[in-house]
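**User:** I keep going back and forth on a fold encoding question. It is easy to fool oneself when nobody else works the same problem. Could you pick a protein and write out its sequence and tokenised fold? Could you put it straight underneath, so I can go through it closely?

**Assistant:**
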Amino acid sequence: MPPDNGKGPGTDLARGEKSYKARCATCHGPGGEGDANRFYPRVSGQHFKYMLREMIDIRDGARLNANPRMVEVVKAVSNAELEAMADYMSSLPVSPAR
């Protein structure tokens, strides 16, 4: 991924970081590096709009191949919270996969 790949607005990064650490870091890694062995994708530096759309689609049941654990994680999360998390993830530096 290029380092300037669709970053979010950067307006609520503290909220996004807090939510990411509480909801996402266990699977996707503290730096968003993912875990190829467990099939958890890298989220660091991902395109903001792509991440937001995917999380909304998973939450709303539009993405039928979503990991059931991911569905549970985002099922009660508001659009504003998802936007903050996507913003934070898009701002993470692309780190090596684990």
Helices lie at 13-23, 25-28, 48-60, 68-74, 79-91.
